[in-house]
Amino acid sequence: MPVQGAMPQEKAGHEGEELRQKLIGTWELVSYKVEEKESGSFIPAMGPSPRGRVVFTPDGWVAFNLEGSHRHPAHNDEDRARLMKTLVAYIGRYRVEGNQWITNVQTAWAPEWVGTEQRRTVVVSDGHANVMTPWRNMPNWAQGRLSRSIIRFRRAPEA
User: Fold this and answer.
1) Which of 11, 56, 124, 148 is an S-S bond match for 22, by CB 3.0 to 4.6 Å?
2) Are the C-beta atoms of residues 62 and 39 closer than 8 Å to each other?
3) Rg of the chain (C-alpha set)
4) Beta 51-56 vs 25-36: how paired, if at all?
């Protein structure tokens, strides 16, 4: 007996392929917000004007490089450690299931992410991709507390 509300496999596969096709290409970061679950407040984790790109290839690779605002060259180890808190960077193979892309992380700025699967819910509309992470413990901020990232990209112009 089918589960009520379950999506037939064929429809789910079609929607996943449609989303995968929409994602292929280069996207530039528009905004990056971090919400803390316990308080419901937003953490200024990446500052007011973060920058970055995400690139989805047709053969199933994704490369992420997002940087917070006001980054300056490091002069010592303390500066370098601080810069790591305003960076999210990883590369891996991705697949699409329904309205999510799942990355099997192969390299990352945070070694604990290597070998993990990272899920992102995404809606692509009008040249923008609105992305939300699940609640998780992020290595960069809200130490020991659950947070999620709410990210907006726009399709990068072709050269």
Assistant:
1) 124
2) no
3) 17
4) antiparallel
Residue 18, token pair as written in the block: 């449609």
Q: What is the pLDDT of residues 37-66, one digit of tens each?
A: 999 999 988 999 999 999 999 999 999 999
Q: Which two tokens stand for residue 128?
A: 């923008």
Contacts of 116 (CB under 8 A, 6+ apart): 105
Do the beta carbons of residue 47 and residue 140 sit within 8 Å? no
Q: How confident is the model at residue 158 (pLDDT cuts 50, 70, 90)?
A: confident
Provide the CB-side half-sphere exposure for 67 (13 A, CA).
9
pTM of the model: 0.87
Q: Judge contact between 55 and 62, C-beta under 8 A.
A: yes
